[in-house]
């Protein structure tokens, strides 16, 4: 059906069923704003079909699949959502239940805090070539900050924390909360449990490596006060990392990881739950943690240290933030 014919049909329905005008407003908004052809919007015709036949037909109602509105309402219940995730375990979540939950975003006012993982005093993992994780985190976070600001997100804040491990976690969460951020993204680089490490020498110095695992991963906490939005944002990051040609680290579901094992929430994009992680759990805003890649893997470390890989990752994160702020979802809400 051509667009003009469809609009005429809508007009006829308005004239005959003025009491249904609320449905019509939603339909017109969807027609104008959604970048789809009329032939792709089959659910619209179902809405009008049900409305027009309810007064004249006594036949039993046909059982149909849940519409996006139903899925969104279910997802809006934190208890239902958390219980569903616990039951699912390492399987993909229904993406329609995650469709954007952010309010309309003005990039010039939208505040993103980029948390540089670890500190100069507590440097995190040590790479296969004896470089501290903190150094990698800082370089990547600065590049992401540059990209976001270039795209109009002028209120992006780089968060650098001082001190030892545990106290610095409390400090960084308090600082992010005091900044009244809209999003928190913590930047890290991955390693492996000590039992996987092997010894070698680099430039005359003893070091350790493990080439067994590689890839990025994204973590969220189901104890975050806005878990649904955190998960939605993490999904977008994972999707963009995949679109950039990167693969995610799959080892976190394996029994060999022991206490480092985590539930996989989406097997397509590499989003895991890490419920007790302080920076995710205590943040009062939606929060995600990105392990950009493994620096204990000798080949991947070289890639992570390159400007090219930092550009790829920062571009992916920037694309995810822009999609998160796409205003049309805020205008329509869950249909």
Furnish the topology, listing elements before pairings.
Elements: H1 3-16, H2 21-33, H3 42-53, H4 68-75, H5 78-88, E1 112-116, H6 133-150, E2 157-159, H7 165-178, E3 183-190, E4 198-202, E5 205-209, E6 217-220, H8 227-243, E7 264-266, E8 271-273, H9 278-281, E9 287-294, H10 298-304, H11 307-324, H12 327-332
Helix pairs in contact: 6-11, 8-11
Q: Describe the sheet with the most strands.
A: 7 strands, mixed
Question: What structural class do helix, strand and pairing data support?
Answer: alpha/beta
Measured distance between first and last alpha carbons: 22 Å
- Gyration radius (Cα, Å) is 23 Å
**CATH homologous superfamily (4th level) name of the largest domain:** Zn-dependent exopeptidases
Q: Strand sequence of the main sheet, in spatial order?
A: 2-1-3-9-6-8-7
Shape: globular
Task: Tally the helices.
Answer: 12
Structure description:
The chain is of the alpha/beta class and 335 residues long. The protein folds into 2 domains: 3-53; 78-330, Zn-dependent exopeptidases (Aminopeptidase, 3-Layer(aba) Sandwich). The chain is 42% helix and 13% strand. The protein has 12 helices and 9 strands. The chain has helices spanning 3-16, 21-33, 42-53, 68-75, 78-88, 133-150, 165-178, 227-243, 278-281, 298-304, 307-324, 327-332, and strands spanning 112-116, 157-159, 183-190, 198-202, 205-209, 217-220, 264-266, 271-273, 287-294. It has a 7-stranded mixed β-sheet, sandwiched between helices. Strands 4-5 form a two-stranded antiparallel sheet. Helix 6 packs across helix 11 (307-324) and helix 8 packs across helix 11. The longest helix is centred in the middle third of the chain and has 18 residues, at 133-150. The protein starts with a helix and ends with a helix.
């Amino acid at each position: 059906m051509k667009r003009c014919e469809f609009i005429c049909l809508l007009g006829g329905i308005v004239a005959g069923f003025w009491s249904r005008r609320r449905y019509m407003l939603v339909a017109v908004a969807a027609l104008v704003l959604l970048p789809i052809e009329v032939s792709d919007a089959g659910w619209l015709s179902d809405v009008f079909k049900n409305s027009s036949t309810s007064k004249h037909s006594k036949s039993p109602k046909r059982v149909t699949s849940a519409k996006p509105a139903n899925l969104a309402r279910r997802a809006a219940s934190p208890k239902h959502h958390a219980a569903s995730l616990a039951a699912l375990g390492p399987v993909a979540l229904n993406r329609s239940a995650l469709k954007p939950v952010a309010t309309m975003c003005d990039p010039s006012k939208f505040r993103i805090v980029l948390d540089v993982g670890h500190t100069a005093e507590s440097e995190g993992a040590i790479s296969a070539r004896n470089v501290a994780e903190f150094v990698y985190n800082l370089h990547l976070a600065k590049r992401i900050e540059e990209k976001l600001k270039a795209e109009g997100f002028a209120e992006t804040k780089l968060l650098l924390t001082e001190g030892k491990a545990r106290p610095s976690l409390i400090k960084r969460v308090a600082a992010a909360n005091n900044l009244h951020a809209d999003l928190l993204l913590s930047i890290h680089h991955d390693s492996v449990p000590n039992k996987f490490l092997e010894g070698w020498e680099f430039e005359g110095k003893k070091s350790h490596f493990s080439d067994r695992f590689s890839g990025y991963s994204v973590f969220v906490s189901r104890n975050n006060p806005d878990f649904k939005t955190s998960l939605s944002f993490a999904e977008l990051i994972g999707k963009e990392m995949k679109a950039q040609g990167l693969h995610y680290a799959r080892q976190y579901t394996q029994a060999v990881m022991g206490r480092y094992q985590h539930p996989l929430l989406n097997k397509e994009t590499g989003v895991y739950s890490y419920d007790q992680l302080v920076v995710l759990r205590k943040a009062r805003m939606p929060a995600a943690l990105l392990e950009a890649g493994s620096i204990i893997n000798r080949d991947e470390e070289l890639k992570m240290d390159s400007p090219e890989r930092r550009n790829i990752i920062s571009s992916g994160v920037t694309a995810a933030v822009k999609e998160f702020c796409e205003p049309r979802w805020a205008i329509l809400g869950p249909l």
